Amino acid sequence: MTHTIRLNVNGKEHTVEVPSRRLLIDCLRYDLGLTGTKEGCSVGVCGACTVLMDGKPISSCLALALFADGKEIVTVEGLAREDRLDRVQQAFIDYGGFQCGICTPGMVVTAKALLDENPDPTVDEIKEWMMGNLCRCTGYYKIIESIQGATALEPGGE
Amino acid sequence: MRAFEYREPDNLEEVLSLLHDHGEDAKIIAGGTALVIMLNQRLIMPSYLISLRKLAGLNSVDSADGALQLGALVTHREMETSPVIRDQIPVLAETFRQVATLRIRNMATVGGTLAHADPSQDSPVTLMALDARVGLSSSGGSREVPLDEFFTDYYETVLQPDELLTHVQVPLPKPHTGSIYLKFLPKTEDDYATVGVAASVEIEPSSQLCRECRIVLGGVAPTPLRVKEAEALLSGQKLAPELLHKAASVVQEHTDPISDSRGAADYKREMAGVCVRRALEQAWQRALTESP
Amino acid sequence: MSYGKIGQPLGRIEGPAKVTGEAKYTADVLLPGMIWGKVLRSPLPHAKIVSIDTQEAEQMPGILAVLTAKDLPDLLTGRLVYDMPVLAIDRVRFIGEKVAVVAAEDPDMAEDALASIDVEYEEMPAVFDAHEAMKSEAPLLHPDYRSYAHAPQKFFSDIPNVHSHVTWKLGDIDKGFALAKRVFEHTFNTPAVHQGYIEPHASVVAIDPDGRVNVWISNKMPVRARELLADVIEIPEERIVVHLAQIGADFGGKGSLMDAPLCYHLAKRTGRPVKMVMTYTEELMAGNPRHPTSIFLRTGVTEEGQIVARQAKVVFNSGAYAAFKPVPFVNIPGAKDAAGVYGTPHIRIDAYSVYANCVPSGHFRAPGDLQVNFAVESSMDMIAEDLGLDRLEFRKQNLLKDGDWVPGGPQLEEVRVAETLAAAVKASSWNQPKSQPNRGLGLAVSHRLIGTGEANTQLTLEEDGTIQVLTPVPEVGTGAHTILQQIVAETLFLSLDQVRVETASEIFKTDSGSGASRVTYVGGQVVQQAAGELMKLILAAGAKGLGCAENEVVFEGGRVVHSESDGSLSLAEVAKMGGDGKSALRVKKSLNLSEGPPMTTFTAQVVELEVDPETGQIRLLDVVTAHDVGTIINPLGHQGQIEGGLLQGVGFGLIEELRMEDGQVSTLNLGDYKLPNIRDIPPLTTVLVEEELGPAPFHGKAIGESSITPTGAAIANAVYDAVGVRFHDLPITAEKVYWALQQHSGGEG
Amino acid sequence: MKFEQTCTIAAGPLKVWNFLIDMENVSRCLPGVESMTLVDEDTYEGIFKIRVGPIALKFKGTLRVEERDRDNWHVGMRVEAKDRRLGGGVRAYLEVDLVEKGSDETQLNVKLESHVLGKIGEFGQPVMRKKTDALLQEFARQVSQELTSPDYA
Question: Given CB atoms, is D130 within the 8 Å cutoff of chain B?
Answer without folding.
Answer: yes
